[in-house]
């Protein structure tokens, strides 16, 4: 059993609250255990400059973490600039969300997604994707309701979970203490029909066998099924 | 009567929640109406370099606003750098909080205060000071409980309110729609014994008579008395 | 008596020289005692982008200090970036000068004001405002003379003084040695008809009573009257 | 058959030249087809500050691309700052190389690896890892020869290949024209015993089935075997 | 005799290779002894904004050095920003190349020249100019071949050499060990008809007599003649 | 005759005022015609870090220009960062001043020289060097008077002049209107014994013959002799 008495294949309690940032076209506060991320979607009525003349929309993301979201205070990125880790995460979130909808159907709009970690206990990038996907759905519904979009486009639900190998055991949805001791770390972004959008698997201390990777992939698949059942 | 049926000398509903960021030595989520600010205090066991050999502590503050805290999305300061407005506000918060305690009694510690606006509806700098003062008190209590400080120093409670003149009328605790139409804007940081710590009064469109300033000062004095009664 | 034998309510000697930077539409070198600030106004024949379509002009300011204006050399901001203090001061100067003239009467022009401190002995932000207001007047006259503006708009003269409480006494126009020992510091930007444009009052070491603030306000009022009498 | 008549499971011609940057402790110019990357390893005789007292060494990497390595000139990052893509790649290279050797056996040394792309035709991050691994081996040999390290530590050979799905077909070692048309993109960092160090698989236009991922993994496994046979 | 048995007036072996960066309109890899610089020219079909309406073209240059081009690794400028030395060199290269051609004849085009030092052994700025001039010639030929320019404009061949005084002796084309011991350092940019484009002569430890300067000028004149004979 | 009726070999009126920045150990306001530069020298009682253990001092310079020193306002470098031109000039000033004194005799001190252009009418870098050399002399005298240095070291007087070819004529000490029309531009830093410290000669529009360079050198030699006669 794990420290919080979870089974190896159990998610932490998940909760989503809509409307925390009432100015946003889509706003979701998602909690995965003690990890809490505020996701906001802003809709702009034009495509970004690099898509001019391409008759399609765009979804892009920014990610941040409040300085005291973590055990010891981190430097405020507004002071120190964006770290490499932040760059990497916000690129991942943006790529994942762009799979949710045919960008041509989105029309000449830009959806700017902000994911801000209010408290961190492992899995912040996965919680960001899972929460932001719901906020994107809300924002697109808002566009339709406000005639900024003629009709609701087909959406592909997306969610993400972390997995890892800790002391030789494959675990689903690692908290911070597990994550910081993991030998292997694998994040999966998966859509509701079971196809994969993104896989990132990293040896943290020792390389891993393909069979170990497959065990993690199975845990992840079962994990996102639970998320889709609860949240979509 | 004002748009939300408040009297000219009435505060918006105030609420404080402790412990939202559990890693922090002091954590307060303060709401003044729809303005919500997350205040966290981090305690470091050394004075800042510029005070070396001075046998005293320090309190400093940083301020930020989530991009979609506002009606239209603002640029993320981690991307664009700190604005002049942010610099000005965080300097004000730091100066105000340093009045709360004799810095020599604080010993060789640095308190880093983070005020992050989750949602903005006017008065964010005042809400930051009022909330952060409570978080400082919690953090100093935490220091005593953990023997990082021998005994509780005497604290001077501090709170702040905004006032302004809108369509010729002096109003207490302006929300965003009032603030953006104010002819005069005055923020007061006041302590529990009625003395003033900081006054900033600005003509937004037209200069004001000293008597008008005095009317605002009276509103502010009565306003912080209510805050001290509720929160301290 | 004060160190330089001034009465508590006396200004330091004030002097203004026009034309030090001959390329500028308005140029004033102002001295308040040993504080010397070079103020230049540049006129551009278009409003700033954020005012497009609003049929009005704009006045904005930048402030700097030469590295060896002070006792010990400061870092050159061109190397280290703008400090929070600089941001705060240049915002104050800009706000104050915009009260001088109806911006609609100014037409689609931008006045860029540069205030550069050549030598610092306290009160640099106040000297900047007092000197820059004269340079703005000169620049607007230059616009009229050059047909960039049809007629002279009505100007509201503006000046600023510092005050403070040092060893319990209220003093006007603090020099550096007084300023660095002040318990309370208050800057007033006042216009020629006695109305106030901006008040910033800060407890430097101990909070202050409203009555003390009022004493400072009286000193400031009398101080700016002398400035208007001499300079306008 | 592919545009250059390669089989779907064939690598492009690989070539490595040692000593191009003679000042470096390890220097490899690697070509994978028209992709050419200059890899240099610099050895410093101290661990990085964050490892002080931990009795181990460190390997870290930086990645760059000459402005005209690509079809259209890119902005020089020395002017524009590091992009998110660069951050992501150099973090990947560093993580991968740190798997090559027990960092405790490396002793208190830092190996700084520079990977600079002189010409780009797809797969630059994989070529960087494959080339840099050889340069690390050379640098560690240099350390032993110069008594900076007592004996040769055991090295785990590492190499990387790109794979992808283009027009429904799984391909090994994509060139630029293939890469820019790929539906799925997967990079594998694999060690000589067949275990995996890092997997990054991304849907470029459409999600992919786990079976497709497995086909790419097979191609990659066979690809790195050829690299180890030729280069190690 | 010098360390490498060269006569005082002898150049190091020079070699140029075209086409190393095949995407560029002009690409030259130049070696002067162990100094190797990769020069690329990119042609854009518009003049820079500051020349709008002036009916002429422009040539501009950027210069960089790979971190391990030198004995000890330098900081990557993409991380640390451009140094003053880099600014100075790239301005010199740009000025020199703009003398090669009548910019009116170049038409509304911008030639962006990148000079990247792959290995450094003294004289990198001179090698950059000499190599880049050849790459500019190639790029302009490419423009004519591709009808981006109606006919070949007249070109003024340009080359540069370093000279210096080492232990009292005037030397041509200093390598790093000579350069770092030079008392006087003089770089000459000269055109094929013997006229000068740029001279920079600096006392490194002791001022120099005009006669010494003249001796260096003679060496340089003979040196560039050899370069023109070999390369143009 | 020139626009201001000067002979081709005549300097503009030169004037120096000491003590404009009274806090500085050396302060000179130099005017060369309408070019006015404020030079300040700050003495620090330690060598810079890169000279630790070398038992010598250092002289370094920074250069700036007030935004409205020029005909049209320039961007404030504190906002936009240092330009390449500024880097180049401040490196030149520092190199030139370091020739004035044996740095070993200077002891473990750093002299920081600030040259700030208050008004610009051509030749600002030369005026900076000429004025700063006098301020360095004053600062070293101040060090001796205050026992920070045991005795006055031998000083080599240094001055600089600009020369150029305008409409085919060689001119001394160009003002802005001449400078902006010059075909060739040459700056000479020369010491009192006639030796040269730095020569920078640049073709602005057309290459120049060595004989033309020699004519400029003669003008410069005679020009600095006048400066030494007047100022040292």
Q: Descriptors for this entry?
A:
homohexamer; 232 residues; alpha+beta; four-stranded antiparallel sheet; 30% strand
Helix/strand layout:
The structure is a homohexamer of 232-residue chains.
Chain A: E1 14-18, E2 26-32, E3 35-44, E4 58-65, H1 77-80, H2 84-98, E5 110-119, H3 124-145, E6 158-166, E7 169-172, H4 176-179, E8 184-191, E9 196-203, H5 210-231
Helix pairs in contact in A: 2-3
Question: What does the model show?
Answer:
The structure is a homohexamer of 232-residue chains. Helices cover 29% and strands 30% of the residues of chain A. Chain A is of the alpha+beta class. In chain A, the strands form two sheets. Chain A has a five-stranded mixed β-sheet. In chain A, a hairpin with a 2-residue loop joins strand 2 (26-32) and strand 3 (35-44). In chain A, helix 2 packs across helix 3. The longest helix of chain A has 22 residues, at 124-145. Chain A is globular. The model of chain A has no long low-confidence stretch (mean pLDDT 96). Chains in contact: A-B, A-D, B-C, C-F, D-E, E-F.
Question: What's this entry about, in short?
Answer:
Chain A has 232 residues and is α+β, with helices and mostly antiparallel strands.
Mean pLDDT of chain A, to the nearest integer, reads 96
The end-to-end span of chain A amounts to 29 Å
What percent of residues of chain A are in strands?
A: 25-35%
The secondary-structure element order of chain A is: EEEEHHEHEEHEEH
Major sheet summary line of chain A: 5 strands, mixed
Q: Helix coverage percent of residues of chain A? A: 25-40%
Strand order of the largest sheet of chain A: 1-2-3-5-4
Rounded Rg of chain A: 18 Å
- Give the quaternary arrangement of the chains: homohexamer
Largest interface: A-B, 32 and 32 residues
Please, how many helices of chain A? 5
- Which residues of chain A form runs of ≥5 with pLDDT under 50? none
* Number of E-state strands of chain A: 9
Shape of chain A: globular
Structural class of chain A: alpha+beta
